[in-house]
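Can't paste images in this forum, so I'm doing it all in text. The chain is below; anyone willing to post the predicted C-alpha cells underneath?
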Amino acid sequence: MTADPTLLQMKYARIISLLAKKANVDEEKAMEMFYKSNTYILMSKGISDFHCLSDAYLVENIMLEQKQ
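Text version of the structure:
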C-alpha cells in the first residue's frame, strides 16, 4: 500500500522533529539519522506499511537501529 506523497512528507517532518527531541540532537542531525535509516527506506519504497505506524513507534525503531 502506498501513502499519499504529501501526507508521507508531513509524517517524515513529524518523525524528524520527534527524533530530534528524543535523541537530544538538532533537527539537522535527526534528519540525517532518519534519511539513513532502514525505516525510511521501507517507508519511501512502500515495501511495508510503516507509514501506518505511530510516529513514536517509528522514532523508537530508528533509535534502536542507531544503537546497532
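The radius of gyration is 11 Å. Helices lie at 5-23, 27-35, 38-45, 55-67.
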